[in-house]
Automatic annotation (TrEMBL):
This is ABC transporter related protein. GO terms for molecular function: ATP binding; ATP hydrolysis activity. SUPFAM superfamilies: P-loop containing nucleoside triphosphate hydrolases. InterPro entries: AAA+_ATPase, ABC_transporter-like_ATP-bd, ABC_transporter-like_CS, ABC_transporter_ATP-bind, P-loop_NTPase. Residues 10-244 form the ABC transporter domain. Keywords: ATP-binding, Nucleotide-binding, Transport.
């Protein structure tokens, strides 16, 4: 991926994340982690279950402040959630059940972007077309399949025109055929919007197919094992794809040595 901006859109320097217990004891989930993400990059987090991938995603989204280190978005410390960062989760029930698909997006745009009803409707229809769910605009969420619900949730997130799209295993609960189709569509959406994507997955194949770089995390408390460039291996049948799959598998199974924090940061700048 051509890197156009000198300053990364996300920078983490020696970040540690955790949750407080009684008597202010900190339970560390992510430990001394340093990395950066370029604007327009598709950056994937992968690692063992419970290692802190979602925790790190929440921190970028502004829902969990670091208790150590510095986390910057667009050059400024993350102070909380904002419309410049939009989430898409694995859970199918992300939409308001009492609003139509179109109504869900219009409401989000009126609240966050302060658009008029007509402006919000026009923008909502554009993004429903983009994710191929325009035919379901007047349906309610309970009338949709899982794949259609995820398309609608993605349309709502994209309609906010965020700088960063944060995706937490968005296709993990879908059947294989639907999942593969949405992976293809997400890559096409990225080509059309160039939005920065930070995606969590358990699938090595998905990580390589969707990502420009894949950050492999260790077991909790998580640190970085390696940040792997996967941008040249979009073709699933290529030797490069097979080699990268085997390499990522070895990092996850054999538990390779951890990168030192300084090396983590310098490797991506």
């Amino acid at each position: 991926m051509a890197q156009q901006d000198v300053e990364p859109i996300v920078q983490a320097a020696h970040v540690s994340l955790g949750y407080s217990r009684k008597r202010k004891q900190e339970v560390t989930i992510v430990e001394d982690t340093s990395f950066s993400i370029q604007r327009g990059e598709k950056f994937v987090l992968i690692g063992p279950s419970g290692c802190g991938k979602t925790t790190l995603l929440k921190a970028i989204g502004g829902f969990l402040p670091p208790y150590q280190g510095e986390l910057l978005v667009k050059g400024r410390p993350v102070q909380g959630p904002g419309p410049d960062r939009a989430f898409v989760f694995q859970d199918f029930e992300q939409l308001f059940a009492w609003r139509t698909v179109l109504g869900n997006i219009v409401y989000a745009l009126q609240v966050t972007k302060r658009l008029s009803r007509q402006e919000a409707t026009d923008k909502a229809r554009f993004y429903l077309e983009l994710v191929d769910v325009a035919a379901a605009a007047d349906k309610y969420p309970h009338m949709l399949s899982g794949g259609m619900k995820q398309r609608a949730a993605l349309a709502r997130a994209l309609a906010l025109e965020p700088d960063i799209l944060l995706m937490d295993e968005p296709f993990g609960a879908l059947d294989a055929i639907t999942r593969n189709q949405l992976q293809l569509e997400l890559n096409e959406i990225w080509r059309r919007t160039n939005v920065t994507i930070v995606l969590v997955t358990h699938s090595i194949q998905e990580a390589i197919f969707l990502g420009h770089r894949v950050m492999v995390m260790s077991s909790s408390p998580a640190r970085i094992r390696e940040i792997v460039d996967t941008s040249t291996a979009e073709d699933l049948s290529s030797a490069a794809f097979t080699d990268l799959s085997q390499h990522l598998q070895s990092l996850l199974v054999r538990q390779a040595p951890l990168l030192e924090p300084v090396a983590q940061l310098s490797a991506v700048e």
